[in-house]
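SEQUENCE-TO-STRUCTURE ENTRY
===========================
Question of interest: how does this chain fold, as expressed in backbone structure tokens?
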Amino acid sequence: MILPIIVEAWPLALRPYMRFLKLGFGVSVVLVMTVRSASIAEAQDCATILTKVKANYGTARTYSASIITHQKSKTKEGQPFAITSSESIKYKAPNLINVVITLKGTGAGSDKFSENDKTFVSDGKVITAYVPSKKLYGKRKSPSNITVPDLLEFIKNLPNANGEQIISRLADRTFSGRSAYVVEIRLKMPSTYTPAQQLQWKAAAANAGPVRVTIDKRNFQLLQITEISNGVAVDINLNDQVFNSNIPVAAFSFVPPPGSKEMQPSNAQRSTAAPGSPLKK
């Protein structure tokens, strides 16, 4: 059974390699939205909080974390299923990464979830994408620069501090023993939409719920992102986050597992490779 619910593609920096492999899908949540707030002062407060969050991740020289994403929904036939994605991330500027993604779940199609486990490793010169279920890996030249928001794309898509994206702050909470801000993001229809686009937007947004972002007050680290929209419930929990520590370069080397094979690109794949990301010859 083909899984019916995919929230978004693989993280931005890794997408060309998934197209090359022609395998799998991703579960990283993208928050693209325009929202409202109760007051200008409140909006400025939220904008300041989110600006500090983005700076925190955008300027990190090293980063490691364990990120757990839970997603619940139903197939087109109404059969329920749940997916849990576990991501182990190590990053070192400017372009070293080690990302291991494993999937498990229950319900419809759950016996196929683990087939989409992936590993991505960049040693600064070559980025390797490995699919354990198929014992296949592919290589490409590494991008010259990768940032933490490239790997955690929901950070890039947090609202900016401008007139088109205004957010609201809910009551503070305690999360895993930490005092935290809670920012709520709600959809708003763009004023430039035509009547036809407005109808489409209203139909799509009819069951869309707010996104709630929980942020550590002490260090402006993301702790949790939750959303219930159109019958899909998603929560992302960011655990064991460490910024700017000493991660050894050895953590960013890929050793092909026994029995695995390298997938060679076809001529067609070479000719359609993404600009700046030539396939390794």
Observations:
- Residues 174 and 180 are 6 Å apart (CA to CA).
